[in-house]
Amino acid sequence: MASPAKTTKRRGRRQGEPVSRDAVLAAAKKRFAEDGYEKTTLRAIANDAHVDPSMVLYLFGSKADLFRAALRLIIDPELLVAAMTGEEGDIGSRLVTQYLQIWESPDTANSMAAMLHSATSNGDAQDAFRSFMREYVLTAVSGVIGGDEQARLRAMLAATNLVGTALMRYVMKVPPLATLPAEDVVRMIAPTVTRYLTADADELGLPEL
Q1: Torsion 73-184-89-137 (CA) sign
Q2: Within a 13 Å sphere around the CA of 39, how many CA atoms are in the beta-carbon half?
Q3: pLDDT tens, 13-40?
Q4: pLDDT tier at 6, thresholds 50, 70, 90
Q5: Distance CA 139, CA 77 (A)
Q6: Which tens digits make up the pLDDT trace of 46-60?
Q7: pTM
Q8: Most CB within 10 Å of its CB: which of 29, 52, 111, 200?
Q9: pLDDT of residue 19
Q10: CB 153 within 8 A of CB 204
Q11: What is the pLDDT of residue 75?
């Protein structure tokens, strides 16, 4: 009697099992954080998510689009909006506190540093980061303060302060900014962020847009 055919354990999805977009995003977030944008490949992400590389392309279109989508797992614009519309303290303190918490959370700290570093060193990552900031973050933040073109400019001015602080403190780790307690950083830069968001347009010298 012939012995039963041996079966091998198939790696990846079972036939007919739906592809999880969330699983691909989670794998991408982890890969981008560990390897950076340039060294991360769609094949590696697909292997981590147990899907075919063609499915990653089908779901997201390109590595840059996947990078932009993964950013939304790290920087949730709705959290920034919730902070800005809170009741405790001034708007700048609330926004800066929430922003620094994203940078200092164990779940997002490495991803934030890797993705900002990628955005400053790779053209495709930079384009993806720019469009993410423009289409999601700046749109959400400016919506709280009016949503018009001047509000977008105010949000962008605030973002220059926030991103610059993060670059010096968390990516380049330049002392003494890198070693100060987070509450001290909030206390120092929040007044400037508040001014950008709320000061009279003439005081800021905002152009007519």
Answers
A1: negative
A2: 10
A3: 434 345 689 999 999 999 999 999 999 9
A4: very low
A5: 9
A6: 999 999 999 999 999
A7: 0.83
A8: 29
A9: 64
A10: no
A11: 92
Contact of 69 with 25, CB cutoff 8 Å: yes
CB 198 within 8 A of CB 192: no
**What pLDDT is recorded for position 209?**
81
Structure-token pair, residue 186: 């909030």
